Amino acid sequence: MNIRENISLKAHNTFGVEARARYFTEVNNTRELQEALRQWAGERPFILGGGSNILLTGEINRLVIKNNIGGRAVTGTAGDKAWISAGGGENWHRLVLWSLDLGLGGLENLSLIPGTVGAAPIQNIGAYGRELREVFHALEAVELDTGALHSFDKEACRFGYRDSIFKRELKGRYCITRVSLELTTANHNLDTSYGAIRQMLESRGVANPTIHDISRAVIAIRSEKLPDPEVLGNSGSFFKNPETPLTQLEKLQKCYPDIPYYPFGEGSVKVPAGWLIEQAGWKGKRIGDAGCYEKQALVLVNHGQASGKEIFKLAERIQQSVEEKFGIVLEMEVNVI
Q1: Which secondary-structure segment (H or E) carries 142?
Q2: Which residues are catalytic?
Q3: pTM (2 d.p.)
Q4: Do residues 177 and 239 share a domain?
């Protein structure tokens, strides 16, 4: 096991903020991960995937293990269904494109989401009307304290909105090494309910979309709204869309009759966090090199030399102003380390 010391993590996080790992190593398979855990006698290691959903605000004074576990395969078919598996270190978007090339449906709405396959269940990633849990079958993960390999089915993961057991009770305790998904080979359940997808398809003259058409539409939408981390450091959506009681929405509508929302469970709705942030006056603003993206207020960006702490302080100021204006508390979607 090659453990290096005092390693910069700037190239390993999409915000592009400077932070250092006291110790750093990379693993390419489950056996290497278990061997690293066996040899490491310090405190529980920190697992790093694509670095696309984290904000590093300081040094990590323990072992950082970069998950490079790859591999992808179709593991079974039955009727109109197919099961695929992929290593936790695989790039998520490349997995989506691979599945589409095989004619498999289910991931098209989740195109161009940054990050790795192993991070996807932790966050229960979702976009444009779909969530990972809708196609999730099972996963394998190594327990960091013991090195033991465990399996989790959908029920065990306890998925919620941008949430799972791995963000709560089991946070930081496992490294996800492989994920299995259940997709379709025919009679795909296409979801074009999201307005932006319908508009994009209409603008392209697509009346009867395929899974590829939907994927291309999602890629186009995301490319228009979200900055490329290679150009402008960011971690995509920084805040969750808040769940709001219907009674509170009705009060807000008296002052803001055009407030957007969509149903979410009995007696509650979700209000777009981006709209709230924009109405609070933050869209396009920057404090030093930490800013709120000019095209999408939900995205915080690093204009060059912002530190993780400076971006975090900006996030806190946005939370405070939205709560003061609307009485709604925004929850951070990004993991702050």
Answers
A1: strand 136-143
A2: 162, 237, 333
A3: 0.89
A4: no
